[in-house]
Specification:
Elements lengths: L20 E5 L2 E4 H19 L4 E4 L4 H13 L3 E4 L5 H11 L3 E4 L13 E4 L18 E6 L9 E5 H15 L6 E4 L6 H14 L2 E4 L5 H9 L4 E4 L1 H10 L4 H9 L2 E4 L6 H11 L4 E6 L3 E5 L13 E2 L4 E5 L5 E2 L8 E6 L6 E2 L3 H6 L1 E2 L2 E10 L5 E6 L4 E4 L2 E4 H9 L4 E11 L3 E10 L8 H11 L8 E4 L19
Parallel strand pairs: 1-10, 3-4, 3-5, 5-6, 9-10, 9-11, 11-12, 12-13, 26-27
Antiparallel strand pairs: 1-2, 7-8, 8-19, 13-14, 14-15, 16-17, 16-18, 18-21, 20-21, 21-22, 23-24, 25-26
Helix pairs in contact: 1-2, 4-5, 6-8, 7-9
Length: about 475
């Protein structure tokens, strides 16, 4: 039986998933039997060709990307997912650093000149074959996923097979994820969220994944109405769903009928939480993870869906908050801010070719996430932002940007908001609010924005400066790129 994909190798005493749909991308689909044949044939081809190395994967939102991932993992070959929109310089760095033996791509994909002479293998979606015998152990690498990074070129986080299995099984426990679930999403397939959670996750459970290709509220409604039970998305997607609900009764019914709505990759603003809950009766639950850690915490399906929190540590995850001097914070008071550190079998093993960066990322066997949070009395974790960009030290106070952003987003004239700190001779740092107005022709005044925050939070948390933009800079996953906000 396959370590990562037991549903592809049925046993005498287990269920046979062969005729069940495993993957659906638009009108194209594969059953488990068809996936086993196509991936097995490709695995038999690329296993010897990779010769113990790695394979790069041109990760378009396609059936071929899913089949290529499964085939490489069945062959025991680590996968390096490539973002098709990556710039020439970054692509050259990733390929040089990871040194893949092969490049998997869908037939017809046009590849940039940057892939050079790397051998290309077209991914079939039909075939009959079996993966090579002798699957590697749980500690062997499964993926090398490159982090975006804030300084310097991206680093390749090496994720072992054990980490993938541990995280997906912990989510099974937290979400009661089963073979009966049908997951709907439109996430990019070159990130942990879309590829590992959104493709490998359903296949490990023996369930079905329906990828929309391109996100639209209409596509979400259609697939949920056709039997989808779970929806994965990022805050930008849920914001668009929330905005569409007022004029789309079918979308409202579809979301109300889903078993689980999950948001990740960034904090979901409280106004969107409330709009979706009010219209559908369903609470979006949030989880927290990173490329290096996979999933750390989640709101449990049998727990309280509390907006603004990412739930409790998953099964097998140890989590602590640490002060700047390295002292563990034991106060679960919902106020004391510390850096999240985690340990467990879900962690990456190293940054490829970067022993210095790997060593700096750990405090003993605890991984330093760089994320700042507080814990409530019942253990729920509330993230206040990144240590480097979202923890503002102003007038002797430690202030989390996320709390202020949620209040700003509650202002009727604010469509988008971000909060950063700027050097200040008196305060150390002053709070700067970056606003995208709901109506660009009638933006709120800076005084109105400041007063709105001051009326709901402590005085030291009010913005000292308000700047207006047409749009906030975001990356592929919808995260606001705060380092681009300056000047």
């Amino acid at each position: 039986m396959s370590y990562l994909f037991p549903a592809l190798t049925p046993t005498a005493d287990g269920p046979d998933h062969g005729d069940r749909v495993a993957l659906r991308f638009g009108e194209r689909s594969l059953t488990y039997g068809q996936l086993a044949g196509a991936a097995g044939a490709l695995a038999a081809r690329i296993g010897p060709a990779a010769d113990g190395g790695r394979v790069a994967l041109w990760a378009t939102p396609s059936l071929e990307t899913a089949v290529g991932t499964v085939a490489a993992l069945l062959a025991g070959v680590p996968v390096v997912p490539l973002n098709p929109r990556t710039g020439e310089r970054e692509l050259a760095h990733i390929l040089s650093d990871s040194a893949p033996s092969l490049l998997l791509a869908a037939p017809g994909d046009e590849l940039p000149a940057g892939v050079g002479s790397l051998e290309r293998v077209d991914v079939p979606v039909a075939g009959e074959g079996q993966a090579p015998a002798g699957e590697p152990g749980p500690g062997a690498p499964a993926f090398v996923v490159y982090t975006s990074g804030t300084t310097g070129p991206p680093k390749g986080a090496v994720l072992p097979r054990r980490a993938v299995a541990t995280t997906l099984d912990a989510l099974q426990d937290a979400w009661q994820w089963s073979a009966d679930d049908v997951l709907v999403h439109a996430l990019p397939l070159f990130h942990v969220h879309g590829l590992i959670l959104g493709i490998v996750g359903p296949l490990r459970r023996g369930g079905e994944v329906r990828h929309l290709g391109r996100f639209t509220p209409e596509g979400v409604a259609r697939e949920l109405r056709r039997g989808g039970t779970m929806l994965f998305g990022v805050p930008t997607m849920y914001h668009r769903l929330a905005e569409a609900l007022d004029d789309d009764a079918e979308l409202m019914k579809a979301l109300a009928g889903a078993r689980l709505l999950v948001s990740g990759s960034a904090a979901l603003p409280l106004p969107d939480h409330e709009r979706i809950a009010a219209a559908t009766g369903r609470r979006v639950i949030e989880r927290y993870g990173m490329t290096e850690t996979l999933m750390n915490t989640s709101v449990r399906v049998d727990g309280q869906a509390r907006p603004g929190t990412v739930g409790v540590p998953l099964r097998g995850v140890s989590l602590r908050l640490v002060d700047e001097d390295g002292t563990q914070i034991t106060a679960w008071d919902g106020e004391t801010i510390g850096e999240i550190q985690v340990r467990g079998d879900h962690l990456f093993t190293e940054y490829l070719n970067r022993p210095d960066a790997t060593a700096a990322a750990f405090d003993g066997d605890w991984f330093r996430t760089g994320d700042m949070a507080v814990r409530d009395a019942d253990g729920y974790v509330r993230i206040v932002g990144r240590k480097a960009t979202d923890l503002i030290k102003s007038g002797g106070y430690k202030i989390g940007a996320g709390e202020i952003e949620n209040v700003l987003l509650d202002h009727p004239s604010v469509r988008e908001a971000a909060v950063t700190g700027a050097p200040d001779a008196d305060l150390g740092e002053r709070i700067v609010a970056w606003i995208v107005a709901a109506d660009p022709q009638a933006p709120p005044s800076a005084e109105d924005v400041t007063a709105h925050v001051a009326a709901q939070l402590a005085p030291h948390k009010r913005p000292r400066e308000v700047r207006f933009l047409d749009v906030l800079p975001r990356n592929d996953m919808g995260k606001i790129m705060k380092r681009a906000l300056h000047g």
